UniProtKB/TrEMBL annotation, chain A:
PANTHER family: DIPEPTIDE TRANSPORT SYSTEM PERMEASE PROTEIN DPPB-RELATED. It comes from the Bacteria. Belongs to the binding-protein-dependent transport system permease family. It comes from Rhizobium giardinii. Residues 94-297 form the ABC transmembrane type-1 domain. Keywords: Cell membrane, Membrane, Transmembrane, Transmembrane helix, Transport. This is Oligopeptide transport system permease protein. It is a multi-pass membrane protein.
From TrEMBL, chain B:
The keyword Cell inner membrane applies. SMART domains: AAA (SM00382). It comes from Rhizobium giardinii. InterPro entries: AAA+_ATPase (IPR003593), ABC_Ni/Peptide_Import (IPR050388), ABC_transporter-like_ATP-bd (IPR003439), ABC_transporter-like_CS (IPR017871), Oligopep_ABC_C (IPR013563), P-loop_NTPase (IPR027417). The keyword RNA-binding does not apply. This is Oligopeptide transport system ATP-binding protein. Its main location: membrane. It is a peripheral membrane protein. Gene3D superfamilies: P-loop containing nucleotide triphosphate hydrolases. Belongs to the ABC transporter superfamily. GO terms for molecular function: ATP binding; ATP hydrolysis activity.
Length: 307, 533
């Protein structure tokens, strides 16, 4: 088990390197630059800026410098938030995003699995139809619509919850952004669970469990659900990475000081270092959660146990 | 004598139906059946006769679209329509089941020990820890070696035969009154089949439960059942003591079923008949293990130095259990897979022929597969399937000539030539196998390798296919290599038999000699397992 984890972590190094390399050059090949403003800067100012940030050097040089700095944990200064390094920005925002994201992930996972299981057990019933319709809405309606609607209903009309901001970080402030963030993932979890649960309920060993008079609770929870969780667990990695690294839309609507907006703002403003920083962050989350999922998978299914 | 026993399960006017998009399908049409204490009742029928669905209906295990009506009384208690909670006191405690598929009937995610313990814990109470002693006892009873170690194994770590033993252990856990065995040995090799049936027999003698044996295999029925109910199309056509059914069958269908046992012999060709296909010292290796960055991949020798000589008009039967290398040998002889050895086709040495050098010879060397469902493309018409080989081997033929050949070939295999314009899914298993045979013989081959061509078919259909193959051989002077695990089919088809085990020939000789006086102990085991009657 330990050697499996170590091997996987070792293989993460080349993966990260490739991700960084591709994003670095993609970003540079996009037209424009961090200092191309609507009103062009005077040529001399521009040249000074470029020299300050070493953007006047050959691309290869810049790449090698970036890589060698990144290895030591130095992701450079942000071009837009001029007083901050990328590491500082991410370090400040990440705790907010992770906290909100974990709540959303829990909500999505528990809610999705419950809804999907209910739908599967009552396949083709009204309940099934209802759950699947709602989850279709959850997947298709973007959260820049869900967010404001939630605010309108629960903050403005009913005035039950605050409309936005982190506040004192208590659950009251986090409920609305958490729901907006979780809804699409909850819908995916529900659909995945329903599908795999229906399949699991039709397997021969479920027939065996029934034939031996095991109570429905044992048949469903002990036998069907464990098998049905396998595809759900595989989806956990991308879902966790997406939720924990923040959402630009939700964080903006609810004015949460997380890291989600940096990716979008950095990309729009050609803030090369900031984009690269968020790319590395997301890549690390994806790699770590994929590893976690593989370990979970091994615990759930003895046939794929790692040695 | 059996009649004096108490009836413990009385089935009256039981109907099972399924609602499908095409309307309601009646799988069981109001049958009566009695199971008496301690007896072995065989319910016999071909696929689709409703024999399994009867039991599923009684046990409340029908698919979601199935309904059961009528009556099934277990010691006076009505099971049909019984609420789930009450039914669950009967299932797994009084009446238990084992199934056809030992590979999938156990939950792959739990140890076998835990799964055997489940019915004990749920019906008798106690903890899983307390049940462990009983589970070890049961594993011992069903002949699982090293129960202390095996109890914590997962199903995928056991062989098919062992998994079926685990299922039997589960079935015995609560000392049931009735054990329903639904085709318990169909998915197993013959020698394993015999072991499992012997086990069931001895356990029944020991514990005295009634056994309901659902099967299509008359050999098993004759040997193990005291009474037989013959089912056809959802109805019981005949019930009676086993000896009566076999010696004085009343219903026409029973007579047909009994007559469908493969019969007849094939005369061997003259010793002077020319050799058409020869493989000497054939060996096939498969690489095992090792992935993309393969660390020390092992080698598995599937066929190990086998020599075989096929004469014109001869049928060599190759017998062996799964994993014996018989199918691999067939493919190696046709030069379809990489193999070492010397090969001759007629007078030509084909040992070093490349794929393209082999191509002109392919039309004379044909192959028919086991699975008539998987081996025909569902998106081609039967006409297209049958004539496909002609495009490669006789490209000069005009459309009309090809069509004429297709008509001839389909007639030859006993199909209506109008079948040309239909698709495989419109045909039954037996008809599909005829299509597959037509596809081979349209090219007028010299040698046909038949790889388990009858194994997926019902007995009565098997007999027809065997008759057809024999007639085709006679009319066209074909030579066959007939691969099968089914000895009665081999006996009816071949004039020479090769027995294989672990990639080697154990014994070979004329069919009569092998069947009447097998010399090797392995062959003797095979024979006694297959012809226990």
């Amino acid at each position: 088990m330990i050697s499996f984890v170590l091997r996987r972590l070792a293989s993460a190094v080349p993966t990260l390197f490739i991700v960084v390399t591709i994003s670095f050059f993609l970003m540079r090949f996009a037209p424009g630059g961090p200092f191309n403003l609507e009103r062009p800067l005077p040529p001399q100012t521009m040249a000074n800026l470029m020299a300050t940030y070493h953007l006047d050097q050959p691309l290869w040089n810049q790449y090698l410098t970036y890589i060698s700095n990144a290895v030591t944990g130095d992701f450079g200064p942000s071009y837009i938030y001029k007083d901050n390094t990328v590491a500082e920005l991410i370090g400040k925002g990440l705790p907010y995003s992770i906290q909100l994201g974990s709540y959303a992930l829990l909500l999505a996972l528990i809610g999705g699995v419950l809804a999907g299981t209910l739908a599967a057990l009552r396949q083709n019933s009204v309940l099934d139809f209802l759950i699947m319709s709602v989850s279709t809405v959850g997947v298709t309606v973007p959260n820049f619509v869900v967010g404001p609607v939630l605010t309108l209903v629960f903050a403005v009309v009913l005035a039950w919850l605050p409309a936005g901001s982190w506040g004192d970080g208590s659950l009251r402030f986090l409920i609305l952004p958490m729901v907006a963030l979780a809804l699409p993932q909850l819908a995916v979890f529900a659909r995945l669970t329903r599908g795999s649960m229906i399949e699991a309920l039709h397997t021969d060993h479920i027939r065996t469990a029934r034939a031996y008079g095991l109570p429905p609770r044992v048949v469903v929870v002990t036998h069907a659900m464990r098998a049905a969780m396998l595809p759900v667990v595989s989806y956990l990695a991308p879902a966790a990475a997406a939720l924990l690294t923040g959402s630009a839309v939700v964080e903006t609507i609810f004015t949460i000081p997380g890291v989600g907006r940096y990716f979008v703002l950095g990309a729009i403003n050609r803030d090369y270092t900031l984009v690269m920083g968020t790319v590395v962050l997301i890549a690390i989350f994806v790699i770590v959660f994929n590893l976690v999922v593989d370990i979970l998978y091994g615990l759930l299914d003895p046939r794929v146990r790692h040695d | 004598m059996t009649d004096s026993r108490e009836t413990i399960l009385a089935v009256r006017n039981l109907k099972v139906s399924f609602s499908t998009p095409d309307g309601t399908v009646e799988a069981v049409k109001g049958i009566d059946l009695d199971v008496k204490a301690g007896e072995t009742l065989a319910v016999v029928g071909e696929s689709g006769s409703g024999k399994s669905q009867t039991m599923m209906g009684i046990m409340g295990l029908l698919a979601g679209n199935g309904t059961v009506t009528g009556s099934a009384k277990y010691r006076g208690q009505e099971l049909v329509g019984l609420p789930l909670k009450a039914l669950n006191h009967v299932r797994g405690e009084k009446i238990t089941m084992i199934f056809q598929e030992p590979m999938t009937s156990l939950d792959p995610l739990y140890t076998i020990g835990r799964q055997i313990a489940e019915p004990i814990v749920h019906h008798r109470g106690g903890t899983f820890k307390q049940a462990r002693t009983r589970v070890l006892e049961l594993l011992e009873l069903v002949g699982i070696p090293e129960p202390k170690r095996r109890i914590d194994s997962y199903p995928h770590e056991l062989s098919g035969g062992q998994r079926q033993r685990v299922m039997i252990a589960m079935a015995l856990a609560n000392d049931p009154d009735i054990l329903i065995a639904d085709e318990p040995t169909t998915a197993l090799d013959v020698t394993i089949q015999a072991q499992i049936l012997d086990l069931l027999n001895s356990l029944q003698a020991k514990f005295g439960m009634a056994v309901v044996l659902i099967t299509h295999d008359l050999g098993i029925v004759r040997h193990f059942a005291s009474r037989v109910a013959v089912m056809r199309r959802g109805e019981v056509v005949e019930t009676g003591a086993t000896t009566n059914i076999f010696e004085r069958p009343q219903a026409d269908y029973t007579k047909l079923l009994l007559a469908a046992e493969p019969r007849g012999r094939k005369e061997p060709p003259a010793n002077t008949a020319p050799i058409v296909l020869e493989g000497a010292n054939v060996a096939v290796d498969y690489a095992t293990g090792g992935g993309l960055f393969g660390s020390s991949a092992g080698v598995f020798r599937a066929v190990d130095g086998v020599s075989i000589r096929l004469r014109e008009g001869q049928t060599i039967g190759i017998v062996g259990e799964s994993g014996s290398g018989k199918s691999t040998l067939g493919r190696a002889l046709l030069r379809l897979i990489p193999s070492s050895g010397r090969y001759r086709f007629g007078a030509t040495n084909i040992s070093d022929f490349s794929r393209s050098a082999m191509r002109p010879l392919r039309r004379q060397l044909q192959l028919v597969f086991q699975d008539p469902y998987g081996s025909l493309s569902p998106r081609q018409t039967v006409g297209e399937i049958v004539t496909e080989g002609l495009y490669v081997h006789e490209p000069q033929l005009s459309r009309a000539e090809r069509d004429k050949r297709a008509i001839e070939a389909l007639k030859e295999v006993g199909l209506d030539p109008a079948a040309r314009n239909r698709y495989p899914h419109e045909f039954s298993g037996g008809q599909r196998q005829r299509i597959a045979i037509a596809r081979a013989i349209i090219l007028k081959p010299k040698v046909v390798i038949l790889d388990e061509p009858t194994s997926a078919l019902d007995r009565s259909v098997q007999g027809q296919v065997i008759d057809l193959l024999r007639a085709l051989q006679k009319a066209n002077g074909l030579s066959y290599i007939f691969i099968s695990h089914d000895l009665s089919v081999i006996k009816a088809m071949s004039d020479y038999v090769v027995v294989m085990k672990n990639g080697r020939i154990v014994e070979e000789g004329d069919t009569d000699a092998i069947f009447e006086a097998p010399r090797e102990s392995y062959t003797q085991t095979l024979m006694s397992a297959a012809f226990t009657a």
